[in-house]
Design brief:
The chain has a six-stranded parallel β-sheet, with helices on both faces. It is 44% helix and 10% strand. It is built from ten helices and six strands. By secondary structure, the chain is α/β, with parallel strands linked by helices. Helix 1 packs across helix 4. Strand 4, helix 8 and strand 5 form a beta-alpha-beta unit. It binds calcium ion (CA). The site of calcium ion (CA) has 8 residues, from loops.
Length: 236
């Protein structure tokens, strides 16, 4: 089975799509916000995934106190949350992502594989190469260093599309499949005019992802893999 459902490029988000880092983010946010008497649930964390730490804390202040958080307020909270997050060490891969990525990499149609992330870690490529050797390359990555406006703005995915067209000039937007797990990421891909497959790797509902505009949703990564391997039904 060699089908890719008409897609020539795949744009993968990272947190919650490649690495299973969201449970640790959610737990760290819940604990630290609770310590500071700010109401914040794991669901809030998943719904806001993709926003900066400052914006997450600020939104909570507005909801709770009707005013914005000052620098002296949000900075220590964010520092605490980051320390707690990093104390857990490296996140494991999402179940099924390794098989999907290596299947794509070895596919005779040679689809382009991009990483499009809000992360700004300089060690990112090394870490990715350790876990998934040869899958990603710097010229096929869009990170926080490459754009001005993060998700849900379309800019990260528009940059990925332009970079992909440098290799494949005829590439059409409908031939690009964004793989996302979070509503704001889905919104970013849709605003860029691309097809968005949402894989629900966290605690949200399928409705949360469809409401953000996802073209199709999957309960897990193997389900997306199976979909891409299944020939498209012919219209009679
Ligand atoms: Ca994500």
């Amino acid at each position: 089975m060699n089908d890719l459902r008409g897609f020539k490029a795949f744009f993968f988000d990272m947190d919650g799509v490649v690495f299973n880092s969201m449970p640790v983010h959610a737990e760290a946010w819940e604990i630290v916000m609770g310590k500071h008497h700010l109401p914040f649930t794991a669901r809030d964390c998943y719904l806001q995934e993709g926003r900066t730490g400052q914006s997450v804390i600020d939104e909570c202040f507005v909801r709770c106190y009707g005013r914005h958080a000052t620098d002296d307020e949000w900075q220590p909270i964010y520092k605490e949350k980051s320390a707690l997050f990093y104390s857990h060490g490296k996140a494991p891969l999402i179940d099924g992502i390794r098989d999907l990525l290596f299947w794509l990499k070895q596919h005779p149609a040679s689809p382009l594989i991009f990483l499009v992330t809000g992360s700004g870690m300089r060690s990112l490529l090394d870490e990715l190469n350790e876990e998934l050797p040869g899958i990603f390359a710097r010229e096929r990555m869009v990170t926080a260093f490459d754009y001005t406006h993060g998700k849900p703005d379309p800019e990260p995915y528009l940059i990925a599309y332009e970079k992909a067209r440098a290799t494949c000039p005829d590439l059409r937007k409908e031939e690009c499949c964004v793989v996302e797990n979070a509503p704001l990421g889905v919104l970013s891909g849709k605003q860029a005019g691309l097809f968005v497959a949402a894989v629900n790797t966290g605690i949200l509902t399928e409705h949360d992802l469809l409401a953000a505009g996802a073209d199709i949703t999957f309960p897990n990564m193997p389900a997306l893999h199976t979909y891409l391997q299944t020939p498209q039904p012919h219209h009679l």
